[in-house]
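Support case: 2-acetamido-2-deoxy-beta-D-glucopyranose complex. Customer-provided input:
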Amino acid sequence: MRVTDIIGLLLPLALAEKLVIPEVEEAVRLQLAQFSEYYVDADNQTLDSLDAFSSHNARGVEERQASSYWYESIAHQGISAFNDNPASYKVYRNVKDYGAKGDGTTDDTAAIQRAISDGNRCAPGACASSSSTNAVVYFPGGTYLVSSSIVSYYATHLIGNPNDVPILKATAVFNGFGVIDGAQYQAGGVLPYGATNIFWRQVNNFIIDLTAIPAENAATGIHWPTSQATSLKNIVFRMSSNAGTQHQGIFIEEGSGGFMSDLTFYGGKYGAVFGNQQFTVRNLAFYDVVTAINQIWNWGWTFQNILVSNCTVGLDMATRDANSKEVVGSAVFFDSSFVNTKIAFNISRNANSTPRTGGSLAIENVSLRNVGTAVNYGPTTTALLAGTTSSTVITSWVSGQVYRPNGPNKLAGTQEPFTRPASLLSNGKYYQRSKPSYAELPSSSFSSVRAGGAKGDGKTDDTAALQRVITAAAASGKVVYFDAGTYIVTSTLFIPAGSKIVGEAYPVIMSRGAFFNTINTPQPVVRIGNPGQSGIVEWSDMMVSTQGAQAGAIMIQWNLASPSGTPSGMWDVHTRIGGTKGSNLSYADCPATPSSTVINNNCRSGNIAMHITPSANNLYLENVWLWTADHDVDDPQLRQITVYTGRGLLVESQLGNIWLVGTSVEHHVRYQYLFRNTQNVYAGQIQTETPYYQPNPSARSPFPLNTTSDPNFDVSCPKATAAANCAEAWGLVVKASKNVLVYGAGLYSFFSNYSTACSAAGASTLCQQGMVLYDAAATSNFRIYGLNTVGAYGMIYKDTVRMATYDYNINVFPSSIISFNNAV
Ligand SMILES: *[C@@H]1O[C@H](CO)[C@@H](O)[C@H](O)[C@H]1NC(C)=O
Ligand SMILES: *[C@@H]1O[C@H](CO)[C@@H](O)[C@H](O)[C@H]1NC(C)=O
Ligand SMILES: *[C@@H]1O[C@H](CO)[C@@H](O)[C@H](O)[C@H]1NC(C)=O
Ligand SMILES: *[C@@H]1O[C@H](CO)[C@@H](O)[C@H](O)[C@H]1NC(C)=O
Ligand SMILES: *[C@@H]1O[C@H](CO)[C@@H](O)[C@H](O)[C@H]1NC(C)=O
Ligand SMILES: *[C@@H]1O[C@H](CO)[C@@H](O)[C@H](O)[C@H]1NC(C)=O
Ligand SMILES: *[C@@H]1O[C@H](CO)[C@@H](O)[C@H](O)[C@H]1NC(C)=O
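Agent response - structure generated as follows:
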């Protein structure tokens, strides 16, 4: 689709018929502003969000011309290398091959379910999780009538044609919890899998239509308890807006997410019901919903670029339990708009709330137009921040504990907003860009790695074949298509400027052998550009992993400089070390052994997960999970494992302009996030976990100190005097950097030597001493909204000085600081 078409499509919005001038103009303007990143995108790439949006609003999907999609017509030769039957197991399933009609009259429920369940997959209730049964269930354009839930299985991608977005239409007598049920309740009312272990799945490009279900009947679009490396993207929810409607778009009650973007909700009682530890949601639009977002519980939640139009309440987080305690931990909400809405934020936090920081909220750069009350104190219906019958912008307002850098100071009111460097912004908002779907390209523009000779079978050394395909594609302007599979590499894979790489169902690049196993001369597994080179690389939907001991593996090394205004990007690209079939770092190889102090060097794998080097800049990361496994994904009991990876994400980009949207980094030895000699970083939300084995061994081992960039525990935790839990992985370190702006951080230490006693509420000895560290001398404009820590005595350290202690800031489970500023 071209730029001109899009503007043409947007103007006759359905909304326009309902609003009077000048609201029409305002609505259109807001939508244009909301989606502007797509149509002004300099390389005209990503139109898919707008596509689904406009297909619903402007032309109506029924009238749309069916349009092909490269992924539907490309040869399907993806495999699951470590499946029990790799020769017969199908990764790709087109629902029409299983009998679905998509004709709007046939009940397609059973056919779709056959497409999902085919091939001995990881079914809810029968299987805990699996790394070798991933699948893509593809939906061509059409209207698929469903009478009960489409029950998704573990590691399943449900993907619609973005050029002809399929409609999942619930029948009037629909029965089930979710048109898509991402985790179907089992007998006894238990969720399958364990919501915090649900990884690696997506739902993209759908219209979910509940409008045939009578308004008074409860109905749900997607039930989605979920965790890291998952996403919902480019989905329209159509619900009844009749009085008393009981429809809801998304329902999440548990998990440790996660990311979602580009969602549009029409009508309903609730657009989204959100309950999960933490999440990043971006680019959501709610029209004519009673309550756009019902936050039932959380620790921390990041809301970026949200539009709420003609609703009663925008974000309702006024949730208390039977004992009047706050249930919602905190929310950070920014670059957003509320139009024709009664209450933007409904909260129940006040000066006397228990726990002390429960219900914390930060708002920044939120515009209101015809909004009754900006922030309403629910229990007594009192305006904490007034609305307006015309329009206004809330530059920054917070409720919670504030440190500047000393504290705690309780605040409910206006404060100065973060100082945003212009280079991180697009039209005054933080730059954003959704994952490219390359929907406009024909299948002839793609170059398959399997067609190019790589095997992806988890055995063959594919280094040379992959390099040939990648090099040739960059030279000829093709997109590299990684068919599903596990591709072994024995030396560095080089990705040159100009590369576009997209994977099917998270294909894995897996390092193996001696080249990556020298602890003091680490080598990149995947190297993006060489220092001094510039250009753009786009990379999505893949994983980088290791087999066996790889003590010198730099999983991803990013050297490439990119032009300002057109950053390079990495979407849904993850590192995954250990815990899976074929990794040789499973329970059988690397079991957790709390009662032993022996370090098994065969379980040292990964020197650093991702290094953004000094020469790199202008890089956008979205939904990236750098994970060293804490348990064996294929073990029926999910038993814990001990695998050592040296470091998480190291950012040393001198020019900076780094966006980290919905990223998490877990279980690395010395630190999770470390920013050093860098500048201009947007990060929201970031999430970390300390390795479960620490302090057995401590973070001093098994990787020797890198005196250039590692935090030096010998200085901060002198062996003779420091507590045993002092030398533990930092969640976040900022050294000699400026403009590091964090919008939501969940930094957790749940374990000490595999025991959770240290993170239990009221624990007297916490799991570790400190979580966030920055240097006083050389760091400037380091700010955090919504910092949540678990299991750390000191939430923030300035050098060796503890600035914030957990027990002054107790929240629903973590401790929370709603706003931190390293300078007064
Ligand atoms: C984007 O597409 C429009 C319309 O096809 C074209 O005029 C414009 O030059 C394109 N921009 C770039 C940077 O390719
Ligand atoms: C607002 O939403 C209600 C349904 O809640 C709908 O009936 C009404 O038409 C909408 N108004 C406008 C101006 O869009
Ligand atoms: C706001 O929250 C209170 C609970 O504190 C609730 O009773 C009230 O219904 C909510 N307001 C609206 C308009 O939903
Ligand atoms: C806030 O958002 C608006 C768009 O809604 C934008 O025009 C403005 O410049 C933004 N930035 C700041 C820092 O206010
Ligand atoms: C991984 O384990 C398999 C099966 O035991 C074995 O064949 C292979 O050599 C091992 N790979 C490494 C790198 O140790
Ligand atoms: C770790 O915990 C185990 C019990 O699970 C205990 O036997 C062992 O002594 C502990 N080790 C250290 C170093 O604390
Ligand atoms: C130490 O870290 C720096 C980056 O800060 C890196 O360039 C260097 O290669 C590392 N040295 C070793 C031995 O890993």
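DSSP finds eight helices and 44 strands in the chain.

Case will auto-close in a few days if no follow-up is received.
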